[in-house]
Amino acid sequence: MVLCVLKGGYKFCCDLVEHIKAIGRSANNVVLFWVKVSGCFRSAVVVEPSGQGGAAGRSEETRGAIVDTGKTIKAVLKHVETFQPKMVKVAALLVKRVPNIAENLPDYVGFEIPDRFVVGYALDYNEYFRDLNHICVISEVGKLKYKI
């Protein structure tokens, strides 16, 4: 079972599941669930599941695109634990170099990056740049231009 954190994790998750299927691991057993997390930049994080029924007793892998403060992944893991899975593993495409990241480190990490705001490959800035096929740092000028 795979749980993808929307919206920023969808491209990474889909590409990773396709790769797992291509190398023949769990090719017919991949069950994909989605979860939307809101309030990442406020004091509370709300997890909005999309039909996680049937997760009890299964092995679960949670996939998100980026880990920085670890607040979102902690909220998602707390939600996942309510289903009492046998095992939970976390994969992230990007992990930012920030203080205290060691306590929030995913089980699988694609790349470690500087503590800069990145966009592209489903990561956005105010819903812009999500469609880029690459990941890049958004400049201060870009942030001002696309500010809401």
Overview of the molecule:
It is a single chain. This protein is α/β, with parallel strands linked by helices and 148 residues long. The protein is built from three helices and eight strands. The chain has helices at residues 10-22, 71-81, 140-145, and strands spanning 2-6, 32-38, 46-49, 59-67, 87-96, 108-113, 118-119, 136-137. Strands 3-2-1-4-5-6 form a six-stranded mixed sheet, sandwiched between helices. It has a two-stranded antiparallel ribbon with strand order 7-8. Helix 1 links the parallel strand 1 (2-6) and strand 2. The chain is globular. The model has no long low-confidence stretch (mean pLDDT 81).
Number of helices: 3
Helix content: 10-25%
Q: Separation of termini?
A: 37 Å
Uncertain parts:
none
Strand order of the largest sheet: 3-2-1-4-5-6
Q: What radius of gyration results from the CA coordinates?
A: 15 Å
**Global shape:** globular
Number of DSSP E strands: 8
Query: Which series of helices and strands comes N to C?
Result: EHEEEHEEEEH
- Proportion of beta-strand residues: 25-35%
Mean pLDDT rating: 81
Structural class: alpha/beta
The biggest beta sheet, please?
6 strands, mixed
